[in-house]
Amino acid sequence: MTRGARYFVALTIALSGVAGDARAQQVAYAVGAAPLDSATQAAVRREMTRAQARGLPVEPLEAKVREGQIKRAAPVRIQSAVVALATRLDSARAALGPASNTAELVAGADALAAGADARALRTLRTSGGPRDLAAPLGALAQLVASGVAPSRATQMIVELLKRGVAPREVLAFGVAVESDVGAGVPAEESAVFRLRAIESAVNGGVSASSAFGQGTDPGSLNLGGKPATGDAARPKRRP
Amino acid sequence: MDDETDETITRIAAALRQLPAVDAAHKARVLVAVAAERERARRARMRAARRWRLAGSMGVAAAAALGLFVWRSDVGAGRPATRIPERTASANAAAATSAPHPAADAATRLTASDPAGVAPLPVQLVLRAPAAHRVSVVGDFNGWDTHANTLDRDPASGLWSATVALRPGRHVYAFIVDDSIWTRDPRMPKSHDADFGRPGSVLLVGQP
pTM higher than 0.95, yes or no? Predict the structure, then answer.
């Protein structure tokens, strides 16, 4: 490589570093509220009216429209996303019961979108009783999204609920598995390892979150950082 | 004797130095209240700025009307025409785009007033973007409203941050840099987006 070419490469690397930390971290998408055409607007409005008539909350559907607009999705895609979300909210309510609150329905719909099935939601409701299920459903969605088989993920969360583990610790379980998967540990292996750690912590009368080697004190601010799971507390990465 | 006294004093001092235990739920409530107060203050500042802009644009509109009147008089008198300032339209457009969005209210309903009695928790979101001029956060918690939660810049570090009150559970979000760039939180897991194909980040918020 010539001297000039080396300078050029070095300068390009230096400039790309300066160009912006935020942009270097991911693909940059152009965003902006793209207006809906009148036909799509009418179709979306009809869908919302139908959902409202069935007793479903409309706010999540409105939010889905805005999400699509910000992401500059095609109108037809926004319409189908709204219809799909209404269907998932319907299924979530059928599985979780008519008394479920909006947050639970949205969390249930997220879990369904992640790959869980209605039976999993019903099982959680049966095991969790009348308590708020938004957090356990969030953990279920995250476990399934991380790659744990839906039936296995459901079984694990039910196990935690039965043991009386606090919802925040159920969520911390999901976070720990996600963190392990990010570090290259197979999802199922991590989930089994973490569950075992919680069980021994609970049996020993210790807070389950201490099993993760991380502070999950809700009073402490989440600095947007990944949980500081130490290597000692993490299952070994598969070679 | 001196040694004993010193030891006693040291013990007393150590005991006095310890802070009393604080209930995590109370701490969370205080932080939520602080975050809400900051948001209220920010909105008040935005409202004041809008009033100023409106007053400014009305002044410009009045000037434009006067100019138009003078121009028409000039044209009528056969003198060369003067240009009408274009600022009126842009000022009004700016005021229209910064109008309060109903999504913010919907988001508040979803997070603050919870029928299940589950209190939202303060969560600080941070992004390092030294070259950015404006950063906001959008997510399921604020109805994907770009005006609902803007981040404040720390000039020293170039870090942008905002504290938002989130209901315990799983949340999907992303940052919008300079009103145009969709930016995932690099510190958090990536979400899947089967609907629109633009993944954000996942945040799991625990509860006491």
Answer: no
